[in-house]
Target: Cytochrome P450
Amino acid sequence: MEAPIWVSYAALWLATVALLLLLSTNRRRRKLNLPPGPRSWPIIGNFNLVGSLPHRSFHNLSQKYGPLMMLRLGSHRVVVATSVETASLILKTHDLSFASRPRTAAGKHTTYNYSDITWSPYGPYWRQARKMCLTELFSVKRLESFEYIRTEEMNSLIKQLFSSNGKQIALKDHLSNVSLNVISRMVLGKRYLDEGEENSIIRPEEFKKMLDELFLLNGVLNIGDWIPYIGFLDLQGFVKRMKDLAKKFDRFMEHVLNEHNKRRATSEEWVARDMVDVLLELADDPNLEVKLERHGVKAFTQDLIAGGTESSAVTVEWAISELLKNPGIIDKATKELDLVVGRRRWVQEKDIPSLPYVRAIVKETMRLHPVAPMLVPRIAREDAQIAGYDIPKDTRVLVNTWTIQRDATVYENPEVFSPERFVGKNIDVLGRHYELLPFGSGRRMCPGYSLGLKVIESSLANLLHGFSWKLPAEMKADDLDMEEIFGLSNPRKVPLVVVAEPRLPRNLYDL
Ligand code: HEM
Model:
Protein backbone atom coordinates (compact mmCIF):
# COMPACT_ATOMS: atom_id res chain seq x y z
CA MET A 1 0.00 0.00 0.00
CA GLU A 2 1.31 3.44 -0.93
CA ALA A 3 1.97 5.95 1.90
CA PRO A 4 -0.27 9.05 1.84
CA ILE A 5 1.35 12.11 0.27
CA TRP A 6 1.56 14.03 3.63
CA VAL A 7 3.86 11.34 5.03
CA SER A 8 6.39 12.05 2.27
CA TYR A 9 6.14 15.80 2.91
CA ALA A 10 6.59 15.29 6.64
CA ALA A 11 9.63 13.06 6.06
CA LEU A 12 11.17 15.65 3.74
CA TRP A 13 10.50 18.42 6.26
CA LEU A 14 12.03 16.45 9.14
CA ALA A 15 15.12 15.60 7.06
CA THR A 16 15.59 19.29 6.17
CA VAL A 17 15.26 20.40 9.81
CA ALA A 18 17.72 17.69 10.92
CA LEU A 19 20.21 18.77 8.23
CA LEU A 20 19.93 22.43 9.21
CA LEU A 21 20.40 21.58 12.88
CA LEU A 22 23.45 19.46 12.10
CA LEU A 23 24.95 22.20 9.94
CA SER A 24 24.36 24.86 12.57
CA THR A 25 25.87 22.72 15.39
CA ASN A 26 28.88 21.93 13.22
CA ARG A 27 29.31 25.57 12.34
CA ARG A 28 29.08 26.50 16.04
CA ARG A 29 31.55 23.78 16.95
CA ARG A 30 33.97 24.87 14.24
CA LYS A 31 33.75 28.45 15.43
CA LEU A 32 34.48 27.63 19.10
CA ASN A 33 38.06 28.11 20.13
CA LEU A 34 38.29 25.47 22.85
CA PRO A 35 41.33 25.12 25.11
CA PRO A 36 43.84 22.47 23.99
CA GLY A 37 43.56 18.93 25.26
CA PRO A 38 44.02 15.27 24.36
CA ARG A 39 41.91 13.61 21.64
CA SER A 40 39.07 11.70 23.18
CA TRP A 41 37.52 8.28 22.64
CA PRO A 42 33.83 7.74 21.95
CA ILE A 43 31.74 7.15 25.11
CA ILE A 44 34.61 7.21 27.65
CA GLY A 45 36.24 10.41 26.38
CA ASN A 46 39.59 10.76 28.16
CA PHE A 47 38.82 8.54 31.13
CA ASN A 48 41.62 6.24 30.00
CA LEU A 49 44.07 9.01 30.98
CA VAL A 50 42.80 9.44 34.54
CA GLY A 51 44.43 7.29 37.23
CA SER A 52 43.58 6.69 40.88
CA LEU A 53 45.02 10.12 41.82
CA PRO A 54 43.22 12.35 39.27
CA HIS A 55 44.98 15.58 40.35
CA ARG A 56 48.31 13.96 39.47
CA SER A 57 46.97 12.65 36.12
CA PHE A 58 45.73 16.17 35.28
CA HIS A 59 49.04 17.59 36.48
CA ASN A 60 50.95 15.37 34.02
CA LEU A 61 48.56 16.26 31.18
CA SER A 62 48.90 19.98 31.94
CA GLN A 63 52.65 19.74 31.36
CA LYS A 64 51.78 18.87 27.76
CA TYR A 65 48.63 20.93 27.11
CA GLY A 66 49.29 24.03 29.19
CA PRO A 67 47.67 25.96 32.05
CA LEU A 68 44.14 25.81 30.68
CA MET A 69 43.25 22.51 29.07
CA MET A 70 40.04 20.83 28.09
CA LEU A 71 39.28 17.14 28.40
CA ARG A 72 36.19 15.12 27.78
CA LEU A 73 35.18 12.78 30.56
CA GLY A 74 32.33 10.60 29.38
CA SER A 75 29.69 13.00 28.03
CA HIS A 76 31.06 16.11 29.76
CA ARG A 77 33.60 18.72 28.86
CA VAL A 78 36.01 19.45 31.70
CA VAL A 79 38.32 22.43 31.88
CA VAL A 80 41.33 22.28 34.18
CA ALA A 81 43.18 25.42 35.30
CA THR A 82 46.74 24.85 36.51
CA SER A 83 48.42 28.25 36.85
CA VAL A 84 48.13 31.32 39.05
CA GLU A 85 46.83 33.32 36.07
CA THR A 86 44.17 30.85 34.89
CA ALA A 87 43.05 30.17 38.49
CA SER A 88 42.55 33.88 39.07
CA LEU A 89 40.62 34.22 35.80
CA ILE A 90 38.24 31.49 36.91
CA LEU A 91 37.95 32.28 40.62
CA LYS A 92 38.08 36.06 40.42
CA THR A 93 37.55 37.65 36.99
CA HIS A 94 34.84 35.19 35.89
CA ASP A 95 33.84 33.89 39.33
CA LEU A 96 30.15 34.57 38.74
CA SER A 97 30.11 32.54 35.51
CA PHE A 98 31.56 29.54 37.37
CA ALA A 99 29.82 29.87 40.73
CA SER A 100 27.61 26.79 40.41
CA ARG A 101 28.23 23.11 41.11
CA PRO A 102 27.58 20.18 38.80
CA ARG A 103 24.69 17.91 39.69
CA THR A 104 26.12 14.64 40.92
CA ALA A 105 24.53 11.51 42.30
CA ALA A 106 26.28 12.23 45.63
CA GLY A 107 24.72 15.70 45.79
CA LYS A 108 21.31 14.25 45.03
CA HIS A 109 21.33 11.24 47.31
CA THR A 110 23.56 12.25 50.23
CA THR A 111 22.66 15.93 50.65
CA TYR A 112 18.86 15.95 50.49
CA ASN A 113 18.64 16.64 46.77
CA TYR A 114 21.24 19.45 46.69
CA SER A 115 19.78 21.23 49.74
CA ASP A 116 23.14 21.63 51.48
CA ILE A 117 25.66 24.44 50.92
CA THR A 118 28.39 22.54 49.08
CA TRP A 119 26.31 21.01 46.28
CA SER A 120 23.45 23.49 45.98
CA PRO A 121 23.41 25.26 42.62
CA TYR A 122 24.11 28.98 42.35
CA GLY A 123 20.92 30.91 43.11
CA PRO A 124 18.94 32.59 45.90
CA TYR A 125 18.90 29.48 48.15
CA TRP A 126 22.69 29.12 48.06
CA ARG A 127 23.25 32.91 48.39
CA GLN A 128 21.08 32.93 51.47
CA ALA A 129 23.01 29.95 52.87
CA ARG A 130 26.28 31.83 52.46
CA LYS A 131 24.78 34.89 54.16
CA MET A 132 23.79 32.68 57.10
CA CYS A 133 27.37 31.36 57.30
CA LEU A 134 28.79 34.87 57.33
CA THR A 135 26.43 36.56 59.74
CA GLU A 136 25.29 33.68 61.96
CA LEU A 137 27.24 30.46 61.86
CA PHE A 138 30.84 31.63 61.44
CA SER A 139 30.67 35.21 62.67
CA VAL A 140 33.65 36.31 64.78
CA LYS A 141 31.38 36.54 67.82
CA ARG A 142 29.93 33.06 67.35
CA LEU A 143 33.35 31.49 66.86
CA GLU A 144 34.72 33.30 69.90
CA SER A 145 31.81 32.11 72.00
CA PHE A 146 32.84 28.52 71.21
CA GLU A 147 36.51 28.97 72.10
CA TYR A 148 36.03 27.23 75.47
CA ILE A 149 34.87 24.10 73.62
CA ARG A 150 37.97 24.06 71.44
CA THR A 151 40.18 24.51 74.53
CA GLU A 152 38.45 21.70 76.45
CA GLU A 153 38.75 19.30 73.55
CA MET A 154 42.38 20.27 73.00
CA ASN A 155 43.05 19.53 76.67
CA SER A 156 41.43 16.16 76.30
CA LEU A 157 43.71 15.38 73.32
CA ILE A 158 46.77 16.38 75.36
CA LYS A 159 45.65 14.08 78.17
CA GLN A 160 45.12 11.17 75.78
CA LEU A 161 48.55 11.63 74.22
CA PHE A 162 50.17 11.93 77.65
CA SER A 163 48.56 8.71 78.79
CA SER A 164 49.82 6.87 75.69
CA ASN A 165 53.01 6.69 77.80
CA GLY A 166 55.53 6.53 75.00
CA LYS A 167 53.63 3.77 73.20
CA GLN A 168 52.93 3.83 69.45
CA ILE A 169 49.70 5.55 68.46
CA ALA A 170 47.81 6.11 65.19
CA LEU A 171 47.80 9.91 65.37
CA LYS A 172 44.88 10.62 63.06
CA ASP A 173 42.42 8.63 65.21
CA HIS A 174 43.15 11.03 68.07
CA LEU A 175 43.01 14.12 65.85
CA SER A 176 39.69 13.06 64.31
CA ASN A 177 38.24 12.60 67.78
CA VAL A 178 39.13 16.18 68.69
CA SER A 179 37.69 17.67 65.50
CA LEU A 180 34.57 15.53 65.71
CA ASN A 181 34.00 16.50 69.33
CA VAL A 182 34.68 20.19 68.67
CA ILE A 183 32.36 20.29 65.70
CA SER A 184 29.61 18.20 67.24
CA ARG A 185 29.57 20.38 70.36
CA MET A 186 29.52 23.59 68.28
CA VAL A 187 26.99 22.36 65.73
CA LEU A 188 24.86 19.87 67.66
CA GLY A 189 25.30 21.22 71.19
CA LYS A 190 26.90 18.15 72.72
CA ARG A 191 29.04 15.14 72.04
CA TYR A 192 26.15 13.14 70.63
CA LEU A 193 28.72 10.57 69.81
CA ASP A 194 30.24 10.20 73.23
CA GLU A 195 31.00 6.66 74.27
CA GLY A 196 29.85 7.41 77.81
CA GLU A 197 26.73 9.33 76.77
CA GLU A 198 23.61 7.59 77.93
CA ASN A 199 20.97 6.88 75.29
CA SER A 200 23.59 7.65 72.66
CA ILE A 201 21.79 7.25 69.34
CA ILE A 202 24.92 6.27 67.53
CA ARG A 203 28.32 4.87 68.49
CA PRO A 204 31.33 7.11 67.64
CA GLU A 205 32.92 4.34 65.59
CA GLU A 206 29.76 3.91 63.54
CA PHE A 207 29.47 7.66 63.00
CA LYS A 208 33.10 7.95 61.93
CA LYS A 209 32.53 5.16 59.43
CA MET A 210 29.52 7.09 58.09
CA LEU A 211 31.65 10.22 57.68
CA ASP A 212 34.41 8.28 55.91
CA GLU A 213 31.77 6.83 53.59
CA LEU A 214 30.31 10.30 52.98
CA PHE A 215 33.73 11.66 52.02
CA LEU A 216 34.50 8.71 49.83
CA LEU A 217 31.16 8.81 48.01
CA ASN A 218 31.41 12.58 47.47
CA GLY A 219 34.87 12.19 45.95
CA VAL A 220 34.54 9.04 43.80
CA LEU A 221 34.29 9.07 40.02
CA ASN A 222 30.80 7.66 39.74
CA ILE A 223 30.37 6.51 36.13
CA GLY A 224 26.70 7.52 36.03
CA ASP A 225 27.67 11.17 36.65
CA TRP A 226 29.80 11.16 33.52
CA ILE A 227 27.94 8.81 31.20
CA PRO A 228 24.37 9.56 32.31
CA TYR A 229 22.56 7.16 29.99
CA ILE A 230 24.12 4.16 31.77
CA GLY A 231 23.68 5.76 35.20
CA PHE A 232 20.62 3.62 35.98
CA LEU A 233 22.82 0.50 35.89
CA ASP A 234 24.85 1.78 38.88
CA LEU A 235 27.74 -0.37 37.67
CA GLN A 236 30.02 0.43 40.63
CA GLY A 237 27.26 0.14 43.22
CA PHE A 238 27.98 3.69 44.50
CA VAL A 239 24.41 4.96 44.18
CA LYS A 240 23.10 2.11 46.30
CA ARG A 241 25.73 2.93 48.94
CA MET A 242 24.72 6.61 48.79
CA LYS A 243 21.07 5.76 49.40
CA ASP A 244 21.93 3.43 52.30
CA LEU A 245 24.15 6.09 53.84
CA ALA A 246 21.52 8.81 53.43
CA LYS A 247 19.04 6.69 55.44
CA LYS A 248 21.54 6.31 58.30
CA PHE A 249 22.31 10.04 58.37
CA ASP A 250 18.65 10.92 58.23
CA ARG A 251 17.86 8.75 61.25
CA PHE A 252 20.54 10.58 63.20
CA MET A 253 19.52 14.06 61.98
CA GLU A 254 15.86 13.44 62.80
CA HIS A 255 16.85 12.54 66.35
CA VAL A 256 19.00 15.67 66.68
CA LEU A 257 16.31 18.01 65.35
CA ASN A 258 13.61 16.46 67.53
CA GLU A 259 15.75 16.90 70.65
CA HIS A 260 16.48 20.53 69.75
CA ASN A 261 12.85 21.32 69.03
CA LYS A 262 11.82 19.71 72.31
CA ARG A 263 14.22 21.88 74.30
CA ARG A 264 12.96 24.94 72.47
CA ALA A 265 9.32 24.13 73.15
CA THR A 266 9.80 23.34 76.83
CA SER A 267 12.38 25.79 78.13
CA GLU A 268 11.08 29.21 79.13
CA GLU A 269 14.14 31.29 78.43
CA TRP A 270 15.35 29.55 75.33
CA VAL A 271 18.40 30.98 73.59
CA ALA A 272 20.25 29.47 70.65
CA ARG A 273 23.12 27.42 72.11
CA ASP A 274 24.51 25.78 69.02
CA MET A 275 24.38 25.96 65.23
CA VAL A 276 21.37 23.63 64.90
CA ASP A 277 19.44 26.00 67.22
CA VAL A 278 20.46 28.90 64.97
CA LEU A 279 19.34 27.05 61.87
CA LEU A 280 15.99 26.04 63.40
CA GLU A 281 15.41 29.64 64.41
CA LEU A 282 16.18 30.77 60.87
CA ALA A 283 13.85 28.09 59.51
CA ASP A 284 11.03 29.79 61.46
CA ASP A 285 11.86 33.25 60.15
CA PRO A 286 8.98 34.42 57.91
CA ASN A 287 11.21 37.14 56.40
CA LEU A 288 13.71 34.80 54.81
CA GLU A 289 13.96 35.31 51.06
CA VAL A 290 13.82 31.55 50.48
CA LYS A 291 12.19 29.29 53.06
CA LEU A 292 14.63 27.04 54.90
CA GLU A 293 12.81 23.71 55.20
CA ARG A 294 13.45 20.93 57.71
CA HIS A 295 15.41 18.92 55.13
CA GLY A 296 17.52 22.06 54.48
CA VAL A 297 18.38 22.31 58.19
CA LYS A 298 19.40 18.64 58.13
CA ALA A 299 21.49 19.11 54.98
CA PHE A 300 23.30 22.19 56.35
CA THR A 301 23.97 20.41 59.64
CA GLN A 302 25.44 17.43 57.85
CA ASP A 303 27.61 19.76 55.72
CA LEU A 304 28.99 21.51 58.79
CA ILE A 305 29.85 18.24 60.50
CA ALA A 306 31.44 16.75 57.39
CA GLY A 307 33.31 19.94 56.42
CA GLY A 308 34.61 20.50 59.92
CA THR A 309 35.80 17.07 60.90
CA GLU A 310 38.06 15.44 58.38
CA SER A 311 39.92 18.38 56.87
CA SER A 312 41.69 19.62 59.99
CA ALA A 313 42.65 16.13 61.18
CA VAL A 314 44.10 15.28 57.75
CA THR A 315 46.12 18.53 57.63
CA VAL A 316 47.63 18.11 61.11
CA GLU A 317 48.52 14.49 60.34
CA TRP A 318 50.38 15.66 57.20
CA ALA A 319 52.14 18.41 59.16
CA ILE A 320 53.51 15.99 61.77
CA SER A 321 54.55 13.59 58.98
CA GLU A 322 56.54 16.30 57.22
CA LEU A 323 58.10 17.45 60.49
CA LEU A 324 59.26 13.94 61.35
CA LYS A 325 61.23 14.03 58.11
CA ASN A 326 62.60 17.49 59.01
CA PRO A 327 63.64 17.54 62.69
CA GLY A 328 65.42 20.91 62.23
CA ILE A 329 62.02 22.51 61.63
CA ILE A 330 60.65 21.05 64.87
CA ASP A 331 63.61 22.58 66.74
CA LYS A 332 62.90 26.01 65.27
CA ALA A 333 59.19 25.76 66.07
CA THR A 334 59.75 24.69 69.67
CA LYS A 335 62.26 27.54 70.16
CA GLU A 336 59.56 29.96 68.99
CA LEU A 337 57.00 28.35 71.31
CA ASP A 338 59.33 28.42 74.31
CA LEU A 339 60.09 32.07 73.67
CA VAL A 340 56.54 33.28 73.03
CA VAL A 341 54.46 30.97 75.23
CA GLY A 342 57.04 29.71 77.74
CA ARG A 343 57.21 26.26 79.30
CA ARG A 344 54.71 26.89 82.04
CA ARG A 345 51.45 26.91 80.11
CA TRP A 346 49.69 25.64 77.00
CA VAL A 347 49.24 27.60 73.76
CA GLN A 348 46.02 29.59 73.55
CA GLU A 349 44.29 30.83 70.42
CA LYS A 350 45.32 34.39 71.22
CA ASP A 351 49.00 33.33 70.99
CA ILE A 352 48.71 32.22 67.36
CA PRO A 353 49.32 35.63 65.70
CA SER A 354 52.62 35.81 67.64
CA LEU A 355 53.80 32.43 66.29
CA PRO A 356 54.81 33.22 62.68
CA TYR A 357 56.96 30.12 62.27
CA VAL A 358 54.22 27.71 63.41
CA ARG A 359 51.82 29.48 61.04
CA ALA A 360 54.35 29.12 58.24
CA ILE A 361 54.47 25.36 58.92
CA VAL A 362 50.69 25.24 58.52
CA LYS A 363 50.85 27.13 55.20
CA GLU A 364 53.65 24.92 53.92
CA THR A 365 51.66 21.80 54.86
CA MET A 366 48.59 23.11 53.07
CA ARG A 367 50.73 23.98 50.05
CA LEU A 368 52.07 20.47 49.61
CA HIS A 369 49.04 18.58 50.93
CA PRO A 370 45.88 20.49 50.04
CA VAL A 371 42.80 18.74 51.44
CA ALA A 372 40.91 19.40 48.20
CA PRO A 373 43.64 19.32 45.54
CA MET A 374 41.23 20.38 42.78
CA LEU A 375 38.86 22.33 45.06
CA VAL A 376 35.23 21.25 44.68
CA PRO A 377 34.11 21.01 41.03
CA ARG A 378 32.32 24.01 39.56
CA ILE A 379 30.23 24.32 36.43
CA ALA A 380 29.94 27.09 33.82
CA ARG A 381 26.53 28.76 34.25
CA GLU A 382 26.91 30.51 30.90
CA ASP A 383 29.29 30.66 27.94
CA ALA A 384 32.54 32.35 28.94
CA GLN A 385 35.85 33.32 27.43
CA ILE A 386 39.02 32.61 29.38
CA ALA A 387 42.47 33.57 28.12
CA GLY A 388 41.09 33.79 24.58
CA TYR A 389 39.44 30.34 24.75
CA ASP A 390 35.72 29.56 24.67
CA ILE A 391 34.30 27.73 27.67
CA PRO A 392 30.77 26.66 26.74
CA LYS A 393 27.95 26.67 29.30
CA ASP A 394 27.75 23.45 31.36
CA THR A 395 31.48 22.75 31.11
CA ARG A 396 32.78 21.37 34.41
CA VAL A 397 35.64 23.37 35.86
CA LEU A 398 38.49 22.22 38.08
CA VAL A 399 41.26 24.35 39.55
CA ASN A 400 44.23 22.11 40.19
CA THR A 401 45.78 23.76 43.24
CA TRP A 402 48.01 20.72 43.66
CA THR A 403 49.86 21.74 40.47
CA ILE A 404 49.77 25.48 41.18
CA GLN A 405 51.19 25.00 44.66
CA ARG A 406 54.08 22.98 43.18
CA ASP A 407 54.80 25.34 40.31
CA ALA A 408 58.56 25.85 40.01
CA THR A 409 58.03 29.27 38.41
CA VAL A 410 56.24 30.37 41.59
CA TYR A 411 58.03 28.41 44.32
CA GLU A 412 61.76 27.72 44.50
CA ASN A 413 62.46 24.00 45.03
CA PRO A 414 58.73 23.30 45.20
CA GLU A 415 59.09 19.67 46.33
CA VAL A 416 61.08 20.67 49.43
CA PHE A 417 59.13 21.20 52.68
CA SER A 418 60.37 24.61 53.77
CA PRO A 419 58.18 26.86 55.99
CA GLU A 420 60.87 29.55 55.67
CA ARG A 421 59.49 30.40 52.23
CA PHE A 422 56.47 31.99 53.94
CA VAL A 423 58.23 33.74 56.80
CA GLY A 424 58.03 37.52 56.40
CA LYS A 425 56.01 37.12 53.18
CA ASN A 426 52.63 38.62 52.64
CA ILE A 427 50.95 35.37 51.47
CA ASP A 428 47.92 34.10 53.32
CA VAL A 429 45.38 31.32 52.75
CA LEU A 430 42.35 33.60 52.54
CA GLY A 431 41.79 33.27 48.80
CA ARG A 432 43.61 36.45 47.83
CA HIS A 433 46.89 34.86 46.77
CA TYR A 434 46.32 32.46 43.92
CA GLU A 435 49.59 30.61 44.52
CA LEU A 436 48.15 29.25 47.79
CA LEU A 437 44.48 28.28 47.76
CA PRO A 438 43.80 25.51 50.30
CA PHE A 439 40.34 26.96 51.01
CA GLY A 440 39.60 27.97 47.40
CA SER A 441 38.67 31.52 46.50
CA GLY A 442 35.78 33.63 45.28
CA ARG A 443 32.08 33.13 45.92
CA ARG A 444 32.40 29.39 46.54
CA MET A 445 35.37 29.66 48.87
CA CYS A 446 35.20 27.58 52.05
CA PRO A 447 32.94 29.41 54.53
CA GLY A 448 34.49 27.49 57.45
CA TYR A 449 38.06 28.61 56.83
CA SER A 450 38.48 30.64 60.02
CA LEU A 451 37.27 27.76 62.18
CA GLY A 452 39.39 25.28 60.22
CA LEU A 453 42.49 27.43 60.64
CA LYS A 454 41.89 27.97 64.35
CA VAL A 455 41.63 24.22 64.97
CA ILE A 456 44.66 23.35 62.81
CA GLU A 457 46.95 26.09 64.11
CA SER A 458 46.21 25.62 67.78
CA SER A 459 46.30 21.81 67.58
CA LEU A 460 49.65 21.83 65.81
CA ALA A 461 51.08 24.49 68.12
CA ASN A 462 50.10 22.50 71.23
CA LEU A 463 51.27 19.18 69.80
CA LEU A 464 54.69 20.70 69.15
CA HIS A 465 54.76 22.59 72.45
CA GLY A 466 53.76 19.64 74.59
CA PHE A 467 55.45 16.63 72.98
CA SER A 468 58.61 15.40 71.32
CA TRP A 469 57.63 13.37 68.27
CA LYS A 470 59.35 10.19 67.21
CA LEU A 471 58.78 7.44 64.70
CA PRO A 472 58.55 3.87 66.05
CA ALA A 473 62.06 2.62 66.94
CA GLU A 474 62.29 0.27 63.97
CA MET A 475 61.50 3.03 61.47
CA LYS A 476 63.73 5.68 59.87
CA ALA A 477 62.45 9.04 58.61
CA ASP A 478 63.38 8.03 55.06
CA ASP A 479 61.10 4.99 55.33
CA LEU A 480 58.07 7.17 56.02
CA ASP A 481 55.67 6.69 53.14
CA MET A 482 54.20 10.01 51.93
CA GLU A 483 51.63 8.62 49.49
CA GLU A 484 48.08 9.91 49.48
CA ILE A 485 44.67 8.57 48.50
CA PHE A 486 42.05 10.52 46.61
CA GLY A 487 38.54 11.26 47.85
CA LEU A 488 36.91 14.51 48.83
CA SER A 489 39.86 14.90 51.22
CA ASN A 490 43.38 13.84 50.44
CA PRO A 491 44.64 11.82 53.42
CA ARG A 492 47.77 9.75 53.88
CA LYS A 493 47.52 6.33 52.29
CA VAL A 494 49.23 4.73 55.29
CA PRO A 495 48.05 6.25 58.61
CA LEU A 496 50.89 7.84 60.58
CA VAL A 497 52.05 5.84 63.60
CA VAL A 498 54.10 7.85 66.10
CA VAL A 499 55.41 8.04 69.63
CA ALA A 500 54.68 11.19 71.65
CA GLU A 501 56.90 12.00 74.64
CA PRO A 502 56.02 14.87 77.00
CA ARG A 503 58.42 17.84 76.87
CA LEU A 504 56.87 20.18 79.46
CA PRO A 505 56.77 19.89 83.30
CA ARG A 506 54.57 16.90 84.26
CA ASN A 507 52.07 18.91 86.30
CA LEU A 508 50.93 20.70 83.13
CA TYR A 509 49.40 17.47 81.85
CA ASP A 510 46.95 17.32 84.79
CA LEU A 511 44.18 18.96 82.84
C1 HEM B 1 41.28 22.54 57.10
C2 HEM B 1 40.08 22.96 57.04
C3 HEM B 1 39.31 23.13 55.75
C4 HEM B 1 39.76 23.11 54.45
C5 HEM B 1 41.18 22.93 53.95
C6 HEM B 1 38.60 23.33 53.60
C7 HEM B 1 38.65 23.42 52.22
C8 HEM B 1 37.55 23.70 51.42
C9 HEM B 1 37.60 23.88 49.98
C10 HEM B 1 38.86 23.78 49.14
C11 HEM B 1 36.35 24.13 49.55
C12 HEM B 1 35.91 24.36 48.09
C13 HEM B 1 36.14 25.78 47.69
C14 HEM B 1 35.84 26.03 46.23
O1 HEM B 1 35.06 25.31 45.61
O2 HEM B 1 36.41 27.01 45.71
C15 HEM B 1 35.49 24.12 50.71
C16 HEM B 1 34.14 24.34 50.67
C17 HEM B 1 33.34 24.23 51.77
N1 HEM B 1 33.74 24.04 53.09
FE1 HEM B 1 35.62 23.86 53.75
N2 HEM B 1 37.50 23.47 54.40
C18 HEM B 1 37.90 23.36 55.72
C19 HEM B 1 37.12 23.47 56.85
C20 HEM B 1 35.77 23.63 56.82
C21 HEM B 1 34.93 23.76 57.99
C22 HEM B 1 35.46 23.80 59.42
C23 HEM B 1 33.65 23.84 57.54
C24 HEM B 1 32.38 23.95 58.32
C25 HEM B 1 32.23 23.66 59.57
C26 HEM B 1 33.68 23.79 56.07
C27 HEM B 1 32.58 23.86 55.26
C28 HEM B 1 32.63 24.00 53.88
C29 HEM B 1 31.44 24.18 53.03
C30 HEM B 1 29.99 24.21 53.50
C31 HEM B 1 31.89 24.35 51.71
C32 HEM B 1 31.05 24.56 50.46
C33 HEM B 1 30.94 26.04 50.11
C34 HEM B 1 30.09 26.34 48.89
O3 HEM B 1 30.00 25.51 48.00
O4 HEM B 1 29.51 27.44 48.84
N3 HEM B 1 34.98 23.67 55.68
N4 HEM B 1 36.24 23.87 51.85
Notes: Residues 294-325 form the longest helix (32 residues). The mean pLDDT is 92. Residues 117-118, 130, 303-304, 307-308, 311-312, 315, 371-372, 375-376, 438-440, 444-448, 451-452, 456 surround protoporphyrin IX containing FE (CB under 6 Å).
